[in-house]
Amino acid sequence: MTDPLLAHATDHGRMYARSTAEAFSVPSITTVIGQQAHSLDGWFGYMGANSLANDPELPRLLGSPGGLRQAVNKAAKAAEVYRDDAAQRGDRVHGYCEQVALRALGRPHRVAEARNDLASHGEEAFAARFDEWWELYRVEPLAPEITVWNTSVGYAGTLDLVARINGRVCLIDYKTKGTNRDGTVKALDDKVVMQLVAGMKAEESLVDPVAGEWEPWKYGEDPVLLAVAIGETEVRPQRANPEVLKHHWWKFCALKRVWEMSADVAAAGAALLPVAPPAYPAAPAVAGSTKLA
Predict the structure, then answer these.
(1) Domain-embedded: residue 291
(2) Among 6, 127, 166, 175, which has the highest number of CB atoms less than 10 A from its own CB?
(3) Which residues on neighbouring strands pair with residue 136, listed in sequence order?
């Protein structure tokens, strides 16, 4: 997947600038959605326990406290390793999808290189299933990897693809998914609807990142919002329910406000200050602390 030129990683999450010469000023769509509380404690625990139980070195290490600690430390990082590997796989799959769209538009592309990259990681099945879906749905790409901006609410993001399918303009977000035991792709998270509706509500799209040139958003008028789950056994597109879009949009705006408040709190300074004991003669005050009245 192309790394958006105007996106920056910051202490407040991923943020966007208006041009390569300007400082970042608004959060990304995914950063805003990330303000929603969710817990992966159970998953992290399972991944760690499963990694330790399946470690082929475990029987040999049981009699060695030092070796056992190494195995435990390795298992503790299992979830992070899995997450990072999945993110890299997702980047490779998204990259291939982008190159296919560029080829269809008659623009310079690296389809062969992107597919070889997937094949070198044993992931070529993702490309094969994607190609089948692309042909079956007769996708007509209009704008791959397009960066959008909303000034009114204050956010930006990059959409995977704007395309025309069966005469309708579609805003598309790809999600690389694993496979269930029955051979189907794993379910998509409803949060993808927030991501798509935020893209639909954009006010501008990027023309030139160096010059900071933007144009009015052309694809926000009643598009079809498609979340496309790409797996090794199938590709499953799902349409966002038009009846619920307003609720997901309101939720996104509320999460944007949460992000703003979190940034304000972080910028306000220390939340807790040291307090010295009362200034009795035998108890000198701690330097720099606040005295109790």
Answers:
(1) no
(2) 127
(3) none
pLDDT digits (tens, 9 = 90+) for 256-277: 999 999 999 988 999 999 999 8
Rounded-to-integer distance, Cα 223 and Cα 124, Å = 31
Does some domain include residue 282?
Answer: no
| C-alpha closest to that of 14 among 188, 169, 155 | 155
- The CATH code of the domain that includes 182 is 3.90.320
Say whether pLDDT at 291 is over 70: no
Upper half-sphere CA count for residue 120 (Cβ side, 13 Å): 7
Q: Please report whether residue 290 resides in a domain.
A: no
pTM of the shown model:
0.82
The three-point CA angle 237-206-194 to 5° equals 40
* Cα–Cα dist 79/47, whole Å: 6
What is the rounded CA–CA span in Å between residue 114 and residue 195?
26
List the domain range (segments joined by +) for residue 192: 7-266
Looking at the DSSP assignment, which residues form a beta bridge with residue 226?
172, 239
